[in-house]
Amino acid sequence: MMESYREEIIPENWYNVVPDLPEPLPPPKSESEDRSSIEFLNRILPAEVLRQEFTFSRYEKIPEEVREMYRIVGRPTPLIRASLLEKKLNYSGKIYLKYEGATVTGSHKINTALPQAFYASREGVDEVVTETGAGQWGTATALAAAMNGISSKVFMVRVSYDQKPLRKTVMNIYGSSVVPSPSMETEFGRKILDHSMDHPGSLGIAISEAVEYALTNNKRYLLGSVMNSVLTHQSVIGQETIRQIEIEGIEPDVLIGCVGGGSNFGGFVFPFLKRFRNVEMIASTASEVPKFSKGSYKYDFIDTAGILPRIRMYSLGSDFVPSGIYAGGLRYHGAAPSLSLLVKKGRIKSEEVSEPEVKDALRFFAAATGIVAAPESGHAIATALRYVKGNLHEKRNIIINVSGHGNFDLSIFNR
Amino acid sequence: MKLAVYLTAGYPSNEVFGAFASAACTAGADRLEIGLPVREPKYDGPEIRRTHARALENFSMGGLASTLKACINGGTEATALRYMPDPAEFGSILGDIRESGIRQMIIPDLLIDHYEERFAVIEQMNGAGIEWIPFYNPATPDSVILETIDRAGKWVYYGLLPSTGISVPTSVETVYQRAREVIGNREIVFGFGIRDSQQVSLLRDLGADGIAIGSALVNFLQNSDIEGFRNYLGVLNAIRN
Ligand SMILES: Cc1ncc(COP(=O)(O)O)c(C=O)c1O
């Protein structure tokens, strides 16, 4: 009884925002006269992921197998009324948390890893490969591959590999082979190691290694954010939230989330756009990676190596080197094209929060909710706290997307 | 189902281009889409990009009128396809297009990169006696189609893919249905990435009003293989009629 009620909250379709955007989404670009880097994606990504990327169907049916896996990993995730937080803040309105940290891998990343691995396995691919910085995406890929009966390989940025051994252990338990990047397994990695044996690695290098590995071994690469199809998969977050507030009987006034590549944020807010025309949407980024305020809206590469096509987005430049902030998931240089367009049009507002404010917010939040949130999600929380403090006497309903838990990132509290 | 043949003006030379344009008309093409070469054909794939680079060396608008005259008199409609010109050049380019006997124009980047100016641009075209042929694709939101469609000329160009001449998986049925639902009964010509006869028959069966072929023809042009070109159009004719 309980289970079937829960299952009804999991949507039957993913929602793709592109048909409902206010302006056309600029297509990806490939400038070469020899080969198209768009066509090249055929050799890198699962075919069904590509089909979804370029078909732009408003609704895409979620395969029954994937819906079942969603249930097993903890969907629907809870919508929690944070009433003690409201009291602690003396806020007159209500605060709700959509808690993606409640999935078994601890973040929203599993929402797209599952379908991508499902399609890869259905297409006869026996291994998927990806990169990971902080470890959230690698963990999701590892579990998704395991659930779909295929192998996985994760190139993990060496500094994270050394600093977060527990992440690696989890991925190993799920059966994934985890390699510190730069590695000896690819030409790109070997070239870097030739020059400096103790190179700390970067997300850009790890992506390049993963893509090269997929190409030379005829495997498929899974992308963790930025692509429109990934945001479409993440729409389960917002669709569930809408059903949950219907049950709760409230109207949404403010939606707040954090932005790395934009997948948890887009997945959370896009399903609200058409039905709740006046709902306020605030995207929180790191002050150390000020893509919306200091970046420009332009065509830029998705990856540092420039293997993937260029897309139109807010970007700090694909060669942007962020300062070593704790919130690894927010270090990405750009933001998904659909999200970028809506920020540019002013439909979505953006705010920046820096490390010290995020740490304070995480502590304050933990004591009132019990959730030790991921540092990335800490940005959304800090932005929400600011919002509440500036609007104490308003009766607005605020929903915060808490994209992950921070149980593997506790070391930031000792710094 | 109509056939639109895309050729980049002046590729590989003005003579070969002219001969192919005439051959297309004789072979029953309903529409000629004449790509006016530019330095940066943003949303084209490798083949068409190469034609622009080469054609820029040869092409001048002056000869276009005589090249197209017989075609147009024979009932083939000609449409110019030109990426958005500098505002300073736009007026004279419209004038040249009209002088060439062409009465329709596609600006593939209008709604993407010049969205704010869209209505002013369309008015300027109409003022110069040129119909606006919209270029839409699956990434064009429904609302954008609905607010511009009334200004469209005789037909609508709908790109199936994000770039010409590439092959990536899409659901032609899904794309077709969404396009038809929003655009209604107007003539829709589908293009971008159409190569094999299976796609052509699928579009025919779905109810497409026309197909546009471009990248698939570049090899014939490059080799001045006019016989091969005629045969290829013959195959398409057999499927579409
Ligand atoms: C918990 C968490 N939140 C947010 C992000 C940022 O990514 P996105 O903007 O794609 O949701 C990440 C990425 O690693 C993450 O692990």
**Secondary-structure element sequence of chain B?**
EHEHHEHEHHEEHEHEHEHH
Fraction of residues in H or I helices of chain B:
40-55%
Could you tell me the mean pLDDT of chain B?
Answer: 95
Strands of chain B, total number: 9
- CATH level-two architecture of the largest domain in chain A: 3-Layer(aba) Sandwich
How is the CATH topology of the largest domain in chain A named? Rossmann fold
**Cα-atom radius of gyration of chain B:** 17 Å
Helix content of chain A: 40-55%
Shape of chain A: globular
Q: How would you sum up the major sheet of chain A?
A: 6 strands, mixed
Largest interface: A-B, 33 and 32 residues
Q: Enumerate the spans of chain A where pLDDT stays under 50 for 5 or more consecutive residues.
A: none
CATH homologous superfamily label of chain B:
Aldolase class I
List ligands, each type once. pyridoxal-5'-phosphate
List the main descriptive attributes of the protein structure presented here.
heterodimer, A: 415 residues, alpha/beta, Rossmann fold, 2 domains, 6-stranded mixed sheet, 4-stranded parallel sheet, 17 helices, 14 strands, 40% helix, 17% strand, globular, B: 241 residues, TIM Barrel, 9-stranded parallel sheet, 11 helices, 9 strands, binds pyridoxal-5'-phosphate
Question: What does this protein structure show overall?
Answer:
The complex is a heterodimer of chains A (415) and B (241). By secondary structure, chain A is an alpha/beta fold. Chain A has helices spanning 2-9, 47-55, 64-72, 83-89, 110-122, 136-147, 158-163, 165-173, 187-195, 203-217, 228-233, 235-248, 263-269, 291-294, 337-344, 355-369, 375-390, and strands at residues 13-15, 59-61, 79-81, 94-99, 127-132, 151-157, 177-181, 220-221, 254-258, 280-286, 296-301, 310-315, 349-353, 397-402. Chain A has two domains: 11-63 and 110-227, Rossmann fold; 74-107 and 229-414, Rossmann fold (3-Layer(aba) Sandwich). Chain A is 40% helix and 17% strand. Chain A has a six-stranded mixed beta sheet, sandwiched between helices. A four-stranded parallel beta sheet of chain A has the order 7-6-5-8, sandwiched between helices. Chain A has a two-stranded antiparallel sheet with strand order 1-2. In chain A, strand 11 (296-301) and strand 12 form a beta hairpin. Chain A is globular and about 60 Å long. With 241 residues, chain B is α/β, with parallel strands linked by helices. A nine-stranded parallel beta sheet of chain B has the order 5-4-3-2-1-9-8-7-6. In chain B, helix 8 links the parallel strand 7 and strand 8 (187-191). In chain B, helix 8 packs parallel to helix 9 (197-206). The longest helix of chain B is centred in the last third of the chain and has 15 residues, at 226-240. Chain B is globular. Chain B starts with a strand and ends with a helix. The model of chain B has no long low-confidence stretch (mean pLDDT 95). Chains A and B meet through helix 2 of A and helix 2, helix 5, helix 7 and helix 8 of B. Pyridoxal-5'-phosphate is lined by residues 107, 134, 136-137, 225, 258-265, 329-330, 374, 376-377, 403-404 of chain A.
